[in-house]
Amino acid sequence: MSNRNSLLRGGAMTALVLVSMAVAGCQSSGPAGELTRIDTMQGSSENISSLSAVISSNPNDPEAYNVRGSAYGRGGKYREALQDFDRALQLNPNFYQAYSNRALIYRFMGNQASALADYNKAIQLNASYDAAYIGRGNLYRKAGRTQDAFNDFQKAIELDTTDPRAYHNRGLIYQQQGQHAFALEDFSKAISLSPDAAEPYNGRGLSYLATGDDDNAFADFNMAIKLDGKIAESWANQALIYERRGDKAKAAKAYAEAVRLDPNYKPAVDGLARTRGGA
After folding, report:
1. What is the pLDDT, as a whole number, of residue 277?
2. C-beta separation of 55 from 39 below 8 A
């Protein structure tokens, strides 16, 4: 079995301690980014009202409930979203998309067991549904079941998914295992599928940094900041380059911005403590 299809076991990270800390910091993604994958519908009150009008006219249409549930999820109204997905599944027990969507809401509500059951049911109903593999993979990854997560991302990719999360998240696992050549390839693919997303640039930059390619790493971190200047990780990663270059003043400034954005982001807090004073 090749390294492409199985994780290295017991392999040490080749990066410096600073890079290892940053990699650990980039292993999670926020709910908002994943909720956009439920549906393109915005969760605004105007859209909810429009969707409710559709349901009033078609009270037995499971797709209408699925779409409104997606909008509720986007708007952070998780209980309302669950009610709509429940209704969609009552009307159509084989509605695999609704199972996958409900699983994501369960995840954000902290009910991981129900989320896993729903992902499994979606895959049972449609073994070619890439979104369910990606969602379940994220569930496994955050639970520390790295090999199971890898297998699900791999399966989604084998299904020719165009969802950048599959490549990005598999890249994170390769990166965690020190397989930076594969990680770089996956992050680049994720960027090609979603060029306006900052996260893959951060991931690729860290693998560049781990392999000693500081120039490309710096370019990626700067691009991540350009795409979204409100992500603490991006500023902390930029600061890593300044710190490696010996420019503590610029490093401290970037770390400070990261701490301002997220006072609990430990790589930034620790970095600011190391570089404060700028000497």
Report:
1. 74
2. no
Rounded CA separation 140/122 (Å): 16
- Tell me the C-alpha distance between 102 and 104, whole Å: 5
207, with CB counted inside 10 A (0-12, 13-18, 19+), is buried
Burial of 47 (0-12, 13-18, 19+ CB in 10 A): middle
Long-range CB contacts (within 8 A, 24+) of 1-6: 3/179, 3/182, 4/182, 5/154
> For the whole model, what pTM was predicted?
0.84
pLDDT of res. 47: 83
Instruction: Using the predicted structure, report yes or no on whether residue 236 has a pLDDT greater than 50.
Output: yes
Instruction: For 157-168, write each residue's pLDDT tens digit.
Output: 999 999 999 999
Structure tokens at 16: 């410096």
> Which residues are CB-contacts of 230 (< 8 A; sequence separation ≥ 6)?
261
Which pair of structure tokens corresponds to residue 80?
């309302």
Q: DSSP letters of 68-103?
A: HHHHHHHTT-HHHHHHHHHHHHHH-TT-HHHHHHHH
Of 30, 34, 29, 23, the C-alpha closest to 173 is 23
Split at pLDDT 50, 70, 90, the class of 44 is low
Distance CA 29, CA 155 (A): 20
pLDDT tens-digit series, residues 99-124: 999 999 999 999 999 999 999 999 99
Length reported for the chain? 279
Q: Token pair 């915005």 is at which residue?
A: 42
Residues near 78 by beta carbon (within 8 Å), at least 6 away in sequence: 72, 105, 108, 109
**Is-contact 117 140, C-beta < 8 A?**
no
